[in-house]
Amino acid sequence: MSGFELQDAALAAKISAALAREAAGLGRAVSLMEVCGTHTMAIARHGLRRLLPPNIRLLSGPGCPVCVSAQGDIDRAVEISRLPGVITASFGDMLRVRGTRLGLDGARSAGADVRVVYSPSDAVAIARQNPGKNIVFIGAGFETTAPAIAAAVLAAQEENLGNFFVLPLLKLVPPALRAILSDESAKIDGFLLPGHVSAVIGVAPYRMLESEYKIPSVIAGFEPVEILHAVTRLAAKIKAGDASVENAYRRAVPDEGNPAALELLYKVFEPANVSWRAIGKLPGSGLMFRAAYGKFDAAQKFNIPEMESAEPPGCLCGAVLTGRALPPDCGLFGKECTPADAVGPCMVSSEGSCAAWYNYGG
Fold first, then answer.
1. Residue 44 domain-assigned?
2. How many CA atoms lie within 13 A of 34 on its CB side?
3. Fewer CB within 10 Å, N or C, the chain?
């Protein structure tokens, strides 16, 4: 018996019954997108899809920071890592993402000094300990990670560390949702919004979902019963024609978000047009250094321009990230592409949809 069954069996049964009633009143099939990679893994690990009524389908969204990093950005990170005198610091999942020829893991095997860190401050410590080297932190992440990276930059400035740099691969969630809904082929009836990102940005950035697109959304926690409750609320909203944003994770998400974290984030970074894997360049969908902090930008320091690189042949990661395909739709899934030997990043990351389906089933 799983921990979920032991912990919340009675409550889950009650919520599932409510969900069944709401689903029965829909009169049609609906597709809901869970935006966050942590939600994706929780849904798969706890077998929540098997608890859903047959007319409710969950699709994964662009909420895995490793997965949405463009192929060209991986190639840029690899190129920087192979420069003389550079130590590259990165979160672990990013090392295993393949570039056009090799990934950071491959660069390390070929002699590059590539190190796994658990926070941006770890990279600052490496810079402090290695004054004769240039340390480059691969700054992949969303609004959740960006304040910590900004804090690391300010710490490096305070210590006058002239050898600490960041390759900014930071993305913003709301513009990605806008891009998905602007695609005429999108068939999304509601969004399960990310708890961690929302704890930083609050509710207001999602208002465009209700005002412009008339799509209901619910900010959800990560426990199985919280996810089931959010799906139930979405079904109820769709049935009632209610397109409002609902905060169902108030124990962690204030409606106003975290003003201190946002102030820190936007002190160092500003919105920019950035590329998303297999989606393309989206306006205002990422973060780049403000001019006052440009000296910390690794791309500027080492004069590494943006790169456009083709996706791995046959990989459907981009379609999975935008809800246009499920992992098993990919011809590589479970064959040429497995967690042990991944072709695309959706199979690499611990938050990737393909890895979730492979490890736990759909």
1. no
2. 31
3. N
Q: State pLDDT tens for residues 185-228.
A: 778 999 999 999 999 999 999 999 999 999 999 999 999 999 99
* Pairwise CA distance, residues 3 & 10, whole Å: 13
Element (H, E) at 146: helix 146-158
DSSP string for residues in 197-236? HHHHH-SGGGHHHHHTS---EEE--SSHHHHHHHHHHHHH
Q: Is residue 265 part of a domain?
A: yes
Q: Structure pTM? A: 0.93
Residue 158: CATH number of its domain: 3.40.50.11740
Sequential DSSP letters for 11-39: HHHHHHHHHHHHHHTT-S-EEEEE--HHH
Assess if residue 42 is contained within a domain.
no
CA-CA distances (angstroms) from residue 129 to 90, 122, 124, 126? 17, 11, 9, 5
Structure token digits, residue 151: 């804090």
